[in-house]
């Protein structure tokens, strides 16, 4: 399982580098050594530019595989049907900026969650367990909108620093 996640991480590194290289993204924000997936998630200007251009399905597919979210979760996050989500696979078009933003947000949440828990299964368990600090709501339920996502990331940060409410 860890080898699979490592391979996906390498694929994400290649894909994000490819997306940035083949887009109209301002090279001023791109490191000369290329961009890894981690670099991308730590560079807000790059994220904004990729969001505005639209996330290609190839990148979304890798992010989807890397995150603990099901296709049904993704269809709820993006507010589109699973059938529409599957149509993106067929066509070479990019996701709309509004959908791209949500895709990148969920990638960010996953990145922070893995930093905190060190394991996808532990992170997924936390997402599906009501949290007293989040009003006894499951963190997964808060990921539907940006404010909820910020609350989840803030709680993950507090957990990481040992600040338990």
From TrEMBL:
Pfam families, per the entry: Xre-like-HTH, Xre_MbcA_ParS_C
Example GO molecular function: DNA binding
UniProt domain Antitoxin Xre/MbcA/ParS-like toxin-binding: residue ranges: 115-162
Coiled-coil zones: none
Domain Antitoxin Xre-like helix-turn-helix, chain residue ranges per copy: 48-107
Top-level division of the source organism's lineage: Bacteria
Listed name of the protein: Antitoxin
InterPro entries assigned: Antitox_Xre, Xre-like_HTH, Xre/MbcA/ParS-like_toxin-bd
